[in-house]
Amino acid sequence: MKPTSVPASPPATHDAGSPAPSPGAAGRIKTLVILGASGDLTGRLLLPGVARLIASGRAPGLTLLGAGSDDWTAGKWQERLTNSFADALTSEGASTADGIKELQRVQQGSSYQELDVTAKGALGGFLKNVQGPVALYFALPPAVSQKACEILVKSDLPAGTRLVMEKPFGSSTESAAKLNATLAKLVPEDHIHRIDHFLGKSTVLNIMGLRFANRLLEHSWNGEHIEKVEIVFDEPLTLENRARYYDHAGAGRDMIQSHLLQIMAIMAMEPPATLNEHDVRANIASVLRASTVGRGGSEDLADHSRRARYTAGTIGDRPVPAYVDETGVDPANDTETLAEVEVYINNWRWAGVPFILRSGKALGRSRKEAVVTFKPVPHLPVGFTGTDSPTRLHIGFGPATLSLDLDVNGPGDLFTLDRVQLGAELASDPLLPYGEVLDGVLSADPLLSVRGDTAEECWRIVEPAFAAWKSGEIPMEEYAAGSNGPANWTTSND
Ligand code: NDP
Question: Cα of 449 to ligand 1 centre, how many Å?
């Protein structure tokens, strides 16, 4: 049966009597300082995101400053801005005429400062001349960010400063706690933005809108009716010259420890009273505190997590070398490129329901979705034939889509069950993911930022599995690049 397209419903209007979801313009950031301005993240993702945000008219009056250890001239910084802003100046998307003028103004007023952030007093001295409130974006190697924060003192920071921390946030529960303690000496928790660019506003709000604005769904959103939830981020991209980072992270740390656990928590959280960051982030934290890989005992980890690495293959018509033969990879690091963990949320709503989180590289297809599989009906009237398949809800994250697989009476023979898929496109924000995240930072709203305690919880959840991988207790499996993973790793779509 062909998919039936159903238009997405219009966005609900905000009830004037309820609390506003964001703190508004009160603490709006005046200056964005990017530390690590000559780096890859800044050029490829951050500046294009900033540019789209400004061009959309949503970041009025901003000053943009770059700083880094490279000896860059003003001309070289302007060249980087010109290259990174080009797309926002020409793309139709969300840009407005005033926004584009604003972007040109921001570029003209932007400057670069050579600065070693690990030299005592250097960053503090630089900040003395910067107009606050400031958002200080640490687009630096994690160890450099840590050191820079350790030598900063509270009095270095203009009033209202926000610290923006990139992933990975620590490398274990212990190191994340240490970094949290360092940051807590500088600014209050709600002024710390731990970035997870997968938590774009549209992704988070689409899940919450679907769950909490539809009585039909929320009613059955629990272990009584749901068999399992899969959250899958598979991509055909390979290492793409990122061995320096990825060969020490792997699919588990790169994707599952951070992004997929956060998405799981939003899928599983209790309904918040408001969309205020206090309510939403408290409910996210409560889910993560209750979560374990497997049912909590280390003895069953082998049944609840697995890992694999790609061998040589072909993706489309592109030959791909084995991961271990990619430039910069050290096979001794034993890095996985595909990982899966089965998480249980040990509370009343979800006891016994597996949340299967899976992500990998060099796969034959791009698949970014959450799939909710419902339990079978308790009794199918005798007389129906055909396949009685479970009801499934798919929430697509790229592109943002929704589809519901249902059994209906087939054409021709009404006694035979057939499958139908109802589909809708979900709203997406024309801002790039980093534009969405920066929108929250610049408007001083930590709703989409990872709270300190949940950053630690995410490490605590996966650490037993990572230890079992490291010790060899769970063997490294293999799959050919361009395949859908090892043959026995099936998911609901296979
Ligand atoms: P790069 O190595 O490309 O850039 C790091 C930047 O930091 C460089 O500009 C470097 O300058 C600067 N730097 C290093 N030491 C100092 C110092 N003491 N004082 C001032 N500046 C310094 O890293 P990325 O841009 O790739 O990554 C930055 C952060 O973003 C990391 O935490 C990473 O995990 C995270 N991230 C990166 C992504 C990406 O796609 N690149 C994606 C998601 C997160 P110099 O060149 O002179 O050393």
Answer: 20
